[in-house]
Amino acid sequence: MDNKTSKDVGTKTKAQLKAEAKQQQQLEIRRNKHFDFLKYIFSAILIAAGIMAFYALDAQLPLYIRYLFPLVGVVAAIVIVFFWSAGGRELTAYVRDSVSESRKVVWPERNEALRMTLFVLIFVAVLSLFIWGVDSLISWLLFDIFMKRS
């Protein structure tokens, strides 16, 4: 039987092997999505249980101890969602990459930033005056000249 199995593996083409690997990967992704959904539901249940415990133990425990129940529920939910689910790991990797990219940004010097800000403000003022002038001219032409409004 080992001889036949090795013979079958040897006769498979690279395309068939790639297709099988891709199919196996898609099956694993689908399975992970189901587990991730269950993790999200469990996280929501933890948060709800913390809030319910806060209100249910109103008479038995002091306020500062009751605050721990929702806090523990939220922290546990965050850990489950962000560290034990595929979506959370992808999000944390994205944030980590974004932070590392933002560290690579070269910010302008203070004088250059002030100069460019002043340039933008002057440009906006000039453009606003130009648009106001064109609007006034068109309004004057249409209403005062062509419609003979006085």
UniProtKB/TrEMBL annotation:
The chain crosses the membrane at residues 37-57, 63-86, 118-143. One of its GO terms (cellular component) is plasma membrane. It is found in: Membrane. The keyword Transport applies. Its main location: membrane. GO terms for biological process: intracellular protein transmembrane transport; protein secretion; protein targeting; protein transport by the Sec complex. Keywords: Cell membrane, Membrane, Protein transport, Translocation, Transmembrane, Transmembrane helix, Transport. GO terms for molecular function: protein transmembrane transporter activity. The keyword Transport applies. Essential subunit of the Sec protein translocation channel SecYEG. Clamps together the 2 halves of SecY. May contact the channel plug during translocation. Belongs to the SecE/SEC61-gamma family. Component of the Sec protein translocase complex. Heterotrimer consisting of SecY, SecE and SecG subunits. The heterotrimers can form oligomers, although 1 heterotrimer is thought to be able to translocate proteins. Interacts with the ribosome. Interacts with SecDF, and other proteins may be involved. Interacts with SecA. This is Protein translocase subunit SecE. It comes from Snodgrassella communis. The gene is secE.
